[in-house]
Every structure is written in structure tokens, then in C-alpha cells.
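User: two proteins, same treatment. go.

Assistant:
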Amino acid sequence: IPVFYYIFLRRQNSDYNSHVVKHPRLESRSHPFTDSPLIRAPPPRHPGQIVAGSSRADYSCYYSSSEPHPHHPQVSAVPENSNSLQNYAKDKLSGQMLELFESCQQQPSDLARKEMCRTRLQQDIQRVYAVARLYLTGSSMNGLGCRSSDADLCLVLTGHKKHDAIYVLSVLQRLFKSLSYIERTQLIRAKVPILRFREKGSDLEFDLNVNNTVGIRNTFLLRSYAYADVRIRPMILVVKKWAQHNQINDASKGTLSSYTLVLMVLHYLQTLKEPVLPSLQRDYPECFNPLMDIDAVPDGPKHIPPYISRNQSSLGELLLGFLKYYATYFSWDKQVISVREARTFPKPYYQEWRKKYICVEEPFERTNAARAVHEKNKFEAIKAQFAESCRILQQRKDLNSILPVRAIINKESATR
């Protein structure tokens, strides 16, 4: 089992090392919601305090046969935040968002199940590729998953030989058909080819790629943002549920991927006059070096000190502001979203950017994460949904007016 993977799951209950405080280098940005800079400071510690965002479960039991590397200290990558989530959910709309989040967020038992399957798969794959390492990535590991979230897997094959992804996945497809606990294998020849399959007898679906290690880097970058402020995870979950309900959250059908939606939320929160988030890559480049060895990636964020935003907007205010920003202020035809720099920049003249309807910079590879939106009618539908939902929510201040809260909760409750 990879050393860093063991350490990551051991950290779920660890305390964050908050002795180092770095002065912010955040500039004010320019859309009309609140003002004053972000400040970082270690929040007060209280006996029995739960670290913001940390899981109450200790997953080290899955790795009891492994020992942590002596050069990898047991330090959590999760910053603290002394503000309780309830402080941001005192109005009706915010309370509905909190209820939806608490009902739908991935549970420790969900992650445990995915991890058990990952462990079995790695053992079986190593019969064919002895040097293979298999990693859970994406929303399962970055704190942004739901109970119904599928699991993303990255198979890392090292060595001098260059591995063709389609060939490797074809080999694995044949292997998986002989495994008693896997069914419905399907090879999908996308830009990043994947092998899709299900755990037998359940609805737990996996997408496995080969050597797409940027997904591992993104997992820990987004995890650092997810736990940076207690409002981030509820905000993102509600936005994803809203987009799914309104059929604008499916890259395979020419709309927005969940990953793109997450970057759009983070960008909005970074660019408020009174930011909720900084740019972690800009302020702490050494922690998210794109050339960092994969085994060192989970240790990068441990050096980031806690920070507190002066922005005290409620969950509902932030959701309405998010819809309003993209419905009114953001220039789709002229701007590229950059979470890496916490700003927008003008569309470059390269074809990848110039001819796309939506431009969202991938934080490590700097490609367009929104390239799936390539049809004008799909783009217009996305814009129209932001405008319509903004209008309705501003008028009614009721989450049920833009998505069926109880139906979603009931569906998630029946999951797994």
C-alpha cells in the first residue's frame, strides 16, 4: 500500500499544526459583494474541539499492516476554523442548505466501502502489473463527495516502459471479467480513457484511469480548499445538486463537469471584495508544486497555516451571490477563470481558449477544464439556468424553488 495513502487516511483524526502563520498576499477584487481583506490567524483551541472538516472516523484500521514512513510526520492537512457552520445557517435558505449537506455528504462507511474495493482491486491488478499502485481520487477523497458519489481510481504504473492507456485498460477489462466482485465493465475511449465498472450487487460505480496523476494532485488541492472554511463543502454540494437537477452537470452531454463546477464556486469565493478563500497555489507555491513527486503530494498542504475570512456571509447569501455573479457580472465571452491566480484573465488567442464558450483553467495543467461545453445551445442553456435560478431564488429565498430538497434527501438516504 503506498506510504502516502496510508498517511492520508491516518490523518483523518489528526490535529493541525498551527504554529506557523503567514501574512496574506491577497488583493481585493472587483465584484459588488462585501469588502476588506482576508486575514489568517490560528483560531483559539478548546478542549474537545472538532477540527473543522475532519472526519470523526479513524480509517487507520484499513492499514494496520502498514507502518508510516519515518520522514512523514502525522500532521493533518486540514486547517482549523473556529466558526461553527450553524453560525452561517440562521435564516431559512441557509438552514435548508445545511440540512441538504448533512443528509447527503459522504459518510465514513461510504469511504470504507470504496477503500475495501480499492484494496482488493490493487491486489488483483498486481497479478498482472506487479509495480501497480491504485489510488482513490476525486470527490471520494477530497471532502466534496455525496453518499451517491461514484469513485474515481488512478492506476499508477512506473518504470522505463511507456504504458499505453487503452492497452492497459483493455488488459484490465479482461482481468475484471474474471473477478467475482466486479460487473458491467466498459472501456470508454475519452481524452482520458477510463474503464468503468460496478461493484457486483450494488450501485457503486468506479472510473479507473491510467497514470492521470494530475487527478491525485487535484484531489489534495481541492481537499485543502474544501476544509479551508466550514461553508465550502455545503456550498459546493448544493451547487452540484442544483446543476444535476437542472441538467447542466454532465460533461458527456456537453455541459459542466462536477470538477468545473467546483472550480467555478472556488473562483467566486476567491474574488469577492471580502474573500472567503485565497489562492492556495499563489500564496503557497511550494505546497502545490506541479513537479512534486506523487508520494509527497499529500504532505504539501500540511505547511499551510489556518486562516479566517472576515466575510461573514451566510450560506444562503453566498449561494445567491454565486448565481448572481455568473448570471450578471461574469463575462463568459471574454474571461478565463483561474483558481490558481484567484482572478480572471482575458481569453488567449490559442484555439483551445478562443473558440470555447466557457473557459476555466485547470489549476495544474492549465488547460481548459470546461472544454466539454462546445455547442452553443448547451452554453445558452447553462447561462439561462444561472439567470432563471438567480431570479427565482432572489425572489423567494427558498431552496425548494430551485431544486426539490426533500426528494434529493430521500434519494441519498436510500443510497448504498
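Protein 2:
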Amino acid sequence: MPPHAESTLVFDSFDLDLVVKVLTQTAFSPFFTSFVPVFYFFQGAKLTDPIVVNSALYCLAVCLFRLLTWISTLYRNQRSIFSAPSLLDWGEQIVVITGGSSGIGELLANTLAVRNVTVVVLDVEPIQTENYNITYYKCDVSQWSEVEAIARRIRDEIGEPTILVNNAGVVQGKLILDLNEKDVQQTFGVNALAHWWTIKAFLPDMIKKKSGHIVTLSSVMGIVGSPQMTDYCGSKAAVRSLNETLRFELDNHYKAPGIRTTLVCPGHTRTRLFATFSVPGHWLYQFFFTSVQPIDIVKPIISALDAQESRTIMVPFFVNLTGYINHLPSFLIDFAQYVACSTYAMKNFRKISGRREEEGPLETQGIY
């Protein structure tokens, strides 16, 4: 945060996500809550006392919720109750990451490469790395002809990709009447159409093996709208629907349920793409609407790949609540927009082009 923003060591690390994490391990933990009625019983309360009955019912509700979540995970990933899934052999994986030359994609590429994973980066700008496990191909992923040609080269020179991470993204930050044809075509080409082209190029090999993993980077802006982001929000909403429809096709038409599909919907992330996006630096705002670092997104992605599970990743926690906003009355939707300060967050936005055009550390930009 800049010097004028309120900041202490406590507030910098204390946010809603931390509170939720603590509650998950305590008040919403079946193990922890199971001791509550036992505690009251050994303190002299009778089994029929309201305090024992209510705490036991609460524990039962927590256990039931966790059970349903567990069953949902098993169902979505075709898991057996009696056997654990096999571990992912990273040495056999070839991971393709679009937009892997900066931000989330760059961090993910380097993190996997350190684990001796073969990583292929598709971007219009080269990735700045000395890791020999990373191979870079210049490719405009919004163009099918380029994706098709590069896909052939990857198969010939490296092998058949087993994991695809569609991460490439652009943002224009203009009002709808200020967007020109090139702006809209670029936004939908990179943020949405590129997903179709890369899937079309690499999915057939996965279907043959009946295994693989496709990670789709969407955004909280694909769930809710915001001024000066009509094209961006539309493109991110499109890939959310793509992810869900793709899962149905894989399960029911291609008979390849072993191919995992993970959807990632992050909130405001401190990367170059949104370096001039304005959000309040006040600790109370940051408590509820935390700005996350790329590592906060990369970690759950790698966890999903490691577990070989289809997941929906929403970080920070408030993103999980945004899906309910559109069902509220209009005046409450407007109030939520006001509280989240999203109405004017793009007012001073400036599009950054060129890898080295940052003005200082990313973590100090876009915060006022």
C-alpha cells in the first residue's frame, strides 16, 4: 500500500479470508463441534437439556454439510468411496499455459517448471526465464490459424499436452460507446475465443487417452458487471459457460469423464493487467474485498492439478457470494456495487502495453 494508506502488520494479514479459514477449522469443523455437546455433558448437563440438544443438532448440521460436499466432490470426479485417487505423475505431464509471460501465467509456469514439469508458454511476448523446462512459442491465441500451427509444432517437438491452462487475458477499460471494433475483437478474441481454439487444438489428444485437465481462467467480473468493462465482463462470462458446457460434453458425448475441468474466478489481482485499477486502500475495505496476489491463485490451481479433481476456485472469499447478487432487488444490487466501490474503480484506468512498462512494484499500484 502507499504510505498514506492505513496499514499495520495486523491489518495487512487480517482479512475476511483469514476469518473464514479459522471458522472452517473451528466452528464449522465436524471434529471440533463434536466435542461441544460432550463438553456440556461432562460439565453436568443432562442429555435432554436444550444446550446439549442444540449443540448436538448444530454438530449434526455441520457434519451433514461436509458430507454433502464430500459426496459432490466424489460424484463430480467419479471417485470411489473405498479407494484413493492415484497420484499425478508430474514427470509425465506437458502443461500448456496461454498468456504465460506475465502475471498469474508466468508464476504458474515457473512454479511448475521448478518441479521439473515440462511447460509450454503461448504468448505474444517472450517469458523472461532461464528455466530449461519452459519452452516458449510466440502465438496470438486469438487466431485459430496460429493456434493450429503451433499445436502441430508442440506435438512434433515436445509431445502431446496433458494439461491446458487458458490464462491469457486483456482489458480495454473503456465505456461501451468508446470501444472500437479492434478493442472488442481483441477482448473477445483473447479472453474468450482463444479458449475455443486451444481446446479444439489440444482436446482430441486428451480424449484419446481419456485423461487430462483443462483450467479456465474467468473472473469475478464474469459473474457481476462493472462500468467500463462491458467487453471484459462479457468475455469472462462466456468462458464460465464454456467450462460448464465442456464438462457436460466430456461426460455425456465424448465419454471422457476422466478429463478434469477447473474454473478459476479470482477477484482483483495485483498483476500488470489491472495495475491501474483503483480500489480503496482503507483496511476495512481490504478486510472484506481483499486484493489477492498471483500466488493466491496459483496455489489452488496446482492443488487441483495435484489432486486430479475438477474444481471451482473462487478467491478471495467474497467472490463466492457474488453469484447471489443478481437475484437481489435492483436497489440492493446498486447498494452492493456502491459498497464494493466498483462503480468508479475503472475511472482512472490506463491500459499498460509492453512487459516493462510498470511504474514501480505492482503491489503498490491500483490502490488509493
